[in-house]
Design a protein that fits this description.
This protein is α+β, with helices and mostly antiparallel strands and 334 residues long. It has helices at 15-22, 25-35, 51-65, 70-74, 84-91, 96-106, 140-155, 178-184, 218-224, 233-247, 252-256, 263-272, 277-295, 300-306, 312-323, 327-332, and strands spanning 6-8, 48-50, 115-121, 124-130, 166-168, 188-189, 195-200. The chain has 16 helices and seven strands.
């Protein structure tokens, strides 16, 4: 089974609320189904989801809205400031150039298989990003939004009336190409090798518009995701399961779909690794339940319901099987 690229769920920050308000609740349900879980219930948490889930979410919302330019509509809402410690680290740099360098250095903690670079060509600076599934079906919706993220970094350092020299997108020229130039207020070139924002080189020395950000080091970013974003199949599946556990409903079908595989293939690969989906779900639930028992004053019945068990008795049996103690014994021992 090929490596499945993943990206922080922070990438979709605010989009569920946008879809609900602009398109409707039904569209949001369809988009969440395509992503594999309810994204609002994991918002603010550093979960990792397949790149395909991002494409699935945006495209499902677009189909529900009958809006082929949804990617452009969401571009202005995209902001690296919403990307957890990664975003705070990137935008906490003293200059725009250092901010871009930080984004490149910390990208491995934000996603796998994405690429980011900066190049100086004469008097121009070119800040480029390549999404891991660029060119895959449905990616056209993502390119404009990706440009929006890059632009958010520039706007954190440059005046409100600043405009880029041009933007390059790695998608075919669309029928309504003029909409892109209307939105970005600059020339837009298509069929490029990457999503690229081109600016005057001297802008790289610009200081931030905001007086101060909380100090965040790359070690802080690394602590949120030791070893970087997950790459191995087992780690990717566990990341999916943890996100579903936080969202309150776990399904192997919803895990397999955004990973671009079938339930049967996923189960076969897990069996080859010496485990199965149910065991991984139980482990993730017990881990989360232990955290809730440790930090919540709520009843064990509430923790049981939060973890999706049909009854407190079933939860207690499952918890004791893994930990050797009942939930009550675990809590009293703290």
């Amino acid at each position: 089974m090929a490596e499945i690229p993943v990206i922080s769920s922070h990438i979709l920050h605010g989009l569920p609320a946008f879809v609900r308000q602009e398109i409707g609740e039904r569209a949001l349900l369809q988009a969440n189904r395509a992503a594999g879980f309810d994204l609002e219930l994991t918002e603010g948490r550093n979960c990792f989801i397949p790149h395909a889930a991002v494409i699935g979410f945006v495209n499902a919302a677009a189909r529900a809205a009958g809006e082929p330019n949804l990617g452009l509509m969401i571009a202005p809402t995209m902001n690296a400031a919403n990307y957890g410690s990664f975003g705070r680290y990137v935008l906490g740099a003293d200059t725009l150039g250092q901010s871009i360098e930080r984004a490149i250095a910390a990208l491995c903690y934000h996603s796998t298989d994405d690429r980011m670079s900066v190049a100086i060509v004469g008097d121009e600076a070119r800040y480029s990003y390549v999404f891991a599934l660029a060119g895959h079906p449905g990616y056209d919706m993502i390119a404009g939004a990706a440009a929006g993220v890059l632009l958010s970094v520039f706007r954190a350092y440059l005046p409100l009336d600043w405009r880029p020299l041009r933007i390059e997108l790695n998608i075919k020229r669309p029928r309504q190409a003029g909409l892109f130039e209307d939105l970005f207020q600059c020339p837009v070139i298509f069929n490029a090798p990457a999503v690229t924002v081109v600016v005057e080189r001297h802008h790289l020395s610009a200081a931030p518009n905001r007086a101060s950000w909380p100090i965040v080091t790359i070690e802080d970013v690394a602590r949120e995701r030791p070893g970087g974003a997950p790459r191995e199949l087992l780690d990717v599946v566990m990341a999916q399961i943890r996100a579903q556990v936080l969202a309150g409903s776990v399904s192997i079908d919803r895990a397999a779909r955004p990973m671009g595989t079938s339930v049967r293939t996923l189960q076969r690969e897990l069996n080859r690794l010496g485990t199965d989906f149910r065991s991984l779900v139980n482990a993730a639930r017990i881990q989360r339940a232990s955290e809730l028992l440790r930090h919540m004053n709520g009843s064990i019945t509430r923790v049981s319901a939060e973890m999706g068990y049909s009854s407190p008795a079933n939860f207690a049996r499952a918890f004791q099987k893994v930990t050797g103690r009942t939930p009550r014994e675990f809590r009293s021992s703290m």
